[in-house]
Every structure is written in C-alpha cells, then in structure tokens.
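Hello,

Our lab assistant flagged a job as stuck in the queue for most of the afternoon. It eventually completed. Since we weren't sure the result was trustworthy after the delay, we are filing this so someone can double-check. Below is the sequence as submitted and the structure that was eventually returned. Let us know if re-running is recommended.
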Amino acid sequence: MPTLASRPLGASGIPVLPLSLGTADFGGPLQGEDPTELVAAAIARGLTLFDTAEGYTDGRSEEELGRAVARLGIRDQILILSKAAYPQGVPGECRASRSALIRACDASLRRLATDRIDIYVLHRPWFDIRHEETLAALTELVRAGKIRYFGASHYPAWKLVEGMLLAQRAGVPGYLVEQPPYNLLDRRVENDVSRVCLDYGIALITASPLGGGILAGIYNDGNIPPGSRADVWRDRPYRQRVNEAAIGIARRLAALAESAGITPSQLALAWLVRQPAVTSVLIAPKSQAELADNCAVLDLAIEADLLASVDALVPAGTFVSDFFSASGWTLGQTRWGRPGVTSGSGGDR
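-- returned structure --
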C-alpha cells in the first residue's frame, strides 16, 4: 500500500488516497488507453475515487466509466463522483433548478449503469436561482437513495459558506466536497476557498493539478505539441494559459525535479498533495506509464528544502496562468447563469 496516508473525505470520514482518477477524457479526442485497463490499474494502485461528469465528452465519460466498473465488478469497492449543472442543455433552463437536477441525476445514473452516485457535485455555481431550491433538490436526491452526498465545484468562498449556513438552518448535511482548479500556476484558492474548506470540514478535491500539461513540461520548448490540450481545444482557454510566464515556471520546476531525480509531474503533484487543505488531487493519465509516474508520488519522500523551492516559484494566493477565474464569477459576470451569458470556462483539466 502507498506510504502517503489516506485522508478523510470531509465530514463523511470515508478514507481516500491523496490521488484520485479523473475520467474527463474518457470517450473523447484526448482519450488514451482503454478506460477499463486504466481503471483496473488505478484500483491496483489503491485509488478508490473516480471523477466524471455529464458534461465530459457529452456523457461518454460516464458511459465509459460505467462500463469499466461493470466489467471489473468493482462498484462496491469505489466511490463515483459525477457532476451536473454545467451551462449546457435546454436553452434558457437553469440547470441548478430542482427539475433540471432530478432529470440530470436520472440520466447520469443510466449512463453510469449504477443505482447510486456516491458524490453528486454542482459543476458550476448558478446565481439566478435561490440557493435553497438547489440544496433542497440535492437533499431530495439523497433521501431517494440516488446519491449519497453532494458537493460543489468552482464555487466562490462566499457561496460555499452560504450553502453550509443554509444547510445548518434546515438541519440537513451541506456540501461534502469542493472541486476547484488548483495548481502551482494558479494558487488563488489559497486566499479563501481552502480556508472555508478547512473550517467547515469540506473535502478539497483539486482539478487541473498539472495545469493542462504545462507543469509536466510538454510546452517547455515553446511549441504546441500535436494532440495536446492547447492543440485539440483551440477554441477554449488552453492556448491563453500556455503563456510565457507559465512556461518559465514550468522550466524552473523541471530543473528542480531533475536535481532531485524525479519528473516535473511528480514534483508538481508532490507539492500539491502536501498543501494543508487538500484532500485528494485528480489525475488524468492517458496511459499506464503516466499513471505509474503520477502514482509514484504516493511513495516519494520529498525534502522540505525542495518543497520550499517549489513553493517560492509562485507566491501564495497569486497566479501566472488563469485557471481559477475561468468559471465566470471572478470575471464580473454576476448574472452568469442567465441565458445568453457565457461562463468563459474551458473545462476542468
């Protein structure tokens, strides 16, 4: 078993490793090896939390994960986290409403071929609907046995606090997890979201830990490799994220990793899993080799001086590449959920 200890998944107390498997690429143009083989390899390495969403590859991610779980017969050994309420679907519909969430949950259950979703997450915050209605719908899904817990993703700190206070007032459980983008290139989560998670017992499950491949060093020569995120998703923010400052940080990270005899990916992940509020980090390997590289972090002993050098690359609470504000609310789009207003989001990885 890995030497880096499991951590409690928020107030649930369920133990999870500091790494979890993200399946956003399953069924899409960035898919690597067979999903069933990757899931099996992740299980063999001790990973138990698997992340997907209705919005990933138009639902194919959920279908591929569901098939893998069924083929391997591991449903009772793992936790499935899926997400809804991304700004898509019926034009003009608020996807955080009661009716929309119930329909979305039923559809996800069908695609996943399961009778329950362990953690059901609001993929983005909505501001044109009362928070009470959204929380009541999620609580209804828990009572119906369709989901076990619920959470949030890309929420501003104030909305997380609002949700927890409303849940306390109603005498029901609140958000179990928050899932923001968090990596060495964008540390703005540390300004408030991470503190809220610590204070309210919310598990912080981080996305984009390698900055869409930037911190892995794939852009260090200044070019866009064929098949990379910045190449495939040209109409999304990936190209803007691959900027001169970010590449400069990646090069310095690579030098530190080389001096320690590890890969840049391993050093970036080792730094992130040791941040105070982090419960688990979503990795999205495309191959057995990438999975092995990432999971080696669970057994790495990292010197404090090396971690301090990594930490000094980008000051706490600041950023050099924009991941955290891509969900819209930090861009001044206070009516973000209204039809015709785009989120500015380019995905989670």
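-- support follow-up --
The delay was a queue issue, not a problem with the job. The result is valid. The longest helix spans residues 244-260. Strands lie at 7-8, 15-16, 19-22, 49-51, 79-84, 117-122, 147-153, 177-179, 203-206, 278-283.
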